[in-house]
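Sanity check

After download, print the first record. It should look like this:
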Amino acid sequence: MQLCLPLEYSWAKQVPQALVIPGCAVELGKPEFGNIIAAKRLDSTESAPMSKGLIDLISILDIEPLEVNLFRGNSPKTSWQRVFGGQVIGQAMVAACRTVEGRLPHSLHCYFILPGDPQIPIIYEVERLRDGKSYSTRRVTAIQHGNAIFSIMVSFHVEEQGSFDHQDKMPDVPPPEKLTAEEVAKQPMFREMPDFIRRYYESDRPIELRPVELGRYFGQKIDDGRIHVWIRTASKLPDDPALHMCALAYASDFSLLDAVMARYGRTLFDKRMMPASLDHAMWFHRPFRADEWLLYAQDSPSAQGGRGLTRGLIFKPDGTLVASVAQEGSVRERK
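Expected C-alpha cells:
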C-alpha cells in the first residue's frame, strides 16, 4: 500500500512536498501565488475527486528537491522510448518557480539537446542569474548520464499595470461541447477514425485534447495550414497560478508540430515521419486556468530543409488571449 505524506507543499518555494497519489485528496488554502497545498488520506468510504489523469500530471510535475538549486524529476511509466518534451519543459519550470518568490513567469525559451531516457530520473540544476526590482531570470539545465539534454531560460515579472493593452481576436470555431466523443461518434467518418485520434477522448490522459479539424486525419489538406485544438487538464488543479502555468507549458508541446503537416493532408502520426522538437518558446499574457478549456490555434508559416516552424495562440473561451507559443522542429521522412 502507498502512503500519502501529510506535509505542506508549495509549487513556488523549496519546501517539503505533499505526495499526491491514488487515495489522496487535495485541500486548498487561499487561491494566491505560492499557495500551500496539503494532502490528506481519504477514508475508504470517501471517493477521490481526482481522476487518474490529474494524479499523473501532478506526480509528473512534482519534482524532488535534492539540494539548493538542485531537483530530480521522474517520467511516467509508458511505452514511449524517449521523454515527452512537454514533461521536461513543465518540470524545469517547476524547478525555476521554486527559486523565485512574489512573481510569476512571463516567458520561457528552451532547447532540446538530446533525447531523454524515460527509464532514469532527470536532474534539474537551477542557476539564479538575476533578481531585479521587476524581473528575475533563471536558467535550468536538465541532465541525464552526466550530459545536458535540455536547457531553458525562464523570466519572471512582478505584477504591473501598463499603458497599453491589445490582442488578436480568437478564431471562430466550434466550442469543445460540440466536439465530445458522443458528438464526434455521430459523424460518418467516426468508424474509420485512427486509433490515435480515438485516444484523444480517453479520460485517463493528463491532458484532454479535442481537435477541431477532424477531416485532416483522413487526408484533408488545410490550405492555409491553420488548425485548432481545445485543451485542458483532465481534472481540476489546485488554485496556484504558477502550477497552472507549468501545466500549460507541459500541454503546449502536444500536437504543435502537427501544424507543419496540415497543408499536406498528413499528420505526425504517419509512420513515415520522424518528428522531434528542437526549440520552444512561450509567453504568458493574461491569467487563466489550465483545467478549463483553452483554444490552441496553430499554424506553420514555413517548412524547409528538414525543419518546420510552428506558432500557437492560446485563448480562453471568452476570447481572452492568455499565451503565445513558437516552436521549430525536425520533420524528416524515413528513407
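If your output differs, re-run the checksum step. Summary of this record's structure: The longest strand covers residues 321-333.
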